[in-house]
Every structure is written in structure tokens, then in C-alpha cells.
Amino acid sequence: MNQLAIPHDHLETLELKNTLKKQKILRWLKGMLFLAPSIILFSIFLFYPLARSIYLSFFLTNNTGVPTVFVGFENYINIFTSPIFRNSLQSTFLFVLYTVPGAIIISLFLAIIANEKLKGIGFFRTMFSSTMGISVAAASVFWMFLFHPTMGWLNQILSYVGVDAIGWLTDPKWALLSVSISTIWMNIGFTFLILLGGLQSIDRYLYESADIDGAGYFYQLRRITLPMLSPTLFFVITVALINAFQTFGQIDMLTRGGPQNQTNLLVYSIYREAFMNYQYGPASAQAIVLFIIILIITLIQFKLGERKVHYQ
């Protein structure tokens, strides 16, 4: 029986396709090999905890965190009808409103000053960024002394000018604002360094051209500095928002959620519910709500960033 002969050119084409396919698979395997450590770490410390939290949010658990009773969406209903959780949600948004704009505006102002070519400016750059090297625990202890009702420096200064002492961390009217002030101070160092790096990356030729055209300082700031700095600003705003929603250390050190739950921010509320009350189901539900809030805000930021951020 006669067999059809396969043209030599066709054989070469098939061999080339097989070779390219093998090379593509080999490149994919090499890429996965390099990604494997990151995938493993993300799976252990991010994906698994997220999946576990979603799972636990539909259950009641015992004191060790083992699911006992399936309750569906009851945990979510309970937290949204709880005045404590609603107060925690309100305090968290107020805290974000106090800290994020404040830290970015102050850091931008300091970065603009530090970007000038002045004598001894290196010393001030070091001072402005020094808070980055201080841990949250150490900084909180420092602010605890400042806010002390009797021995604190702030109240001593007020007494010198004839003003009554303020319960910075004990008065419900002042506690959240006081923690916000300390948080702004803690965050300035990182934000300042990033913004200063962004300012130094702007081409000086743009300012020289603007000077030749007679543009004033504030016109250059509005038309050159801020537009060219927009990618850096977008980054620091995104990071600052996420960090503000995840604030825990200074709350635990300074107020422990008090007084009267005025500083009981979401992350501290989750911690209290899980590791003090051993209610892992409701705590997981709160964690998922926090995750959704951060996700929505981040997506909105990226959507706005497409219109407002200039990369050229």
C-alpha cells in the first residue's frame, strides 16, 4: 500500500513549531521557578489567611478558633447592627481623614524646602526623615510622655500660658485627635523621603525654561512641580490610606481603644474581638469588611489616577 510522502519543507515547519513550543514551555517553567518563592510566601501569608478569614466569617467558633456552628451572614448582620462596630467604623474614617492629608501636606512642604539648594540643607533632610528610623513602639512611648496629664510637656507648656491641662489620651474629645497627631509625626519621615526623591527627579530644564518665560514661583509649583510629582503623590496617597486603615501599634500603646471606644479603630477592634473575646467569627467578618473598604478605595484611586496622574 502506498504511503503519502510528507514534503520536506512541511517536516521542517513541524519541527520548528515543536521546537518553539518546547522553548515556550521551558521559558514558562523557568519563570515559574523564579516566581515560586514569592508564590509560596504570598500563599502562606496572604492568600491562605484571606481564604481562612472568609471561611471563619460564616461560623461561630470555640476559644481555639475551631468552627462550631455555621451561621451564614449572621456575623455580618450583627456587626453592622452593633453600635460599637459603627462607632469603630466612624472613628477609623475620621482617623484617616485627620492623618493622611495632614502627613502628606506637611511632608510635601518639608520636601519642597529640602529640595532647595541651601547651605546646611543636608542636616535638615536628615532631621525631617529621622522619624522613619523610629519604631512605632518607641515613638508611642515618646508621645505617651508628651501627652501625660500631669508630667507631660504639652500640659506643662499650657500651664505656663494659663491654659487648663488637657486629657490628651483620656478625654474622649481629644483622644482620637491626639493619636492622629502622633501618627502624622511617625509617618512624615517615609512620606518626606519619597516626595523628596520625586522632586529631585524633575528635570531642572523645565524650571529654567519657565524662568526665562517669566513664570513665578507659585505658577511653577502649580504647572510644573505638582503635575510632574503626581505619580509620586499618587503612590504616597495610596500607601498612606492603606496604612491608616491598618493602624494598630500606636492605638495599642497609647489608648487601647479608649476612652469610651473613641480610638477603637477597625484593626484594633478585630484584635480585641479575636484575641480578647475569642470571637473569631465576628472578628473575621470585620476583617473582610476592612478588606473590602481598602479594596474599593484603592480601585477608586487607580481610576482617578488614570485621569489625574501625568507620567510624562
UniProtKB/TrEMBL annotation:
It is found in: Cell membrane. It comes from the Bacteria. GO terms for cellular component: plasma membrane. This is Sugar ABC transporter permease. Residues 89-301 form the ABC transmembrane type-1 domain. Belongs to the binding-protein-dependent transport system permease family. Signal peptide: none annotated. Keywords: Cell membrane, Membrane, Transmembrane, Transmembrane helix, Transport. The chain crosses the membrane at residues 31-51, 93-114, 126-146, 174-196, 226-245, 283-302. SUPFAM superfamilies: MetI-like (SSF161098). Coiled coil: none annotated. It holds the Pfam family BPD_transp_1. InterPro entries: ABC_transporter_permease, MetI-like, MetI-like_sf. PANTHER family: ABC TRANSPORTER PERMEASE PROTEIN, INNER MEMBRANE ABC TRANSPORTER PERMEASE PROTEIN YCJO. It is a multi-pass membrane protein. PROSITE patterns: ABC_TM1. CDD domains: TM_PBP2. One of its GO terms (biological process) is transmembrane transport. Its main location: membrane.
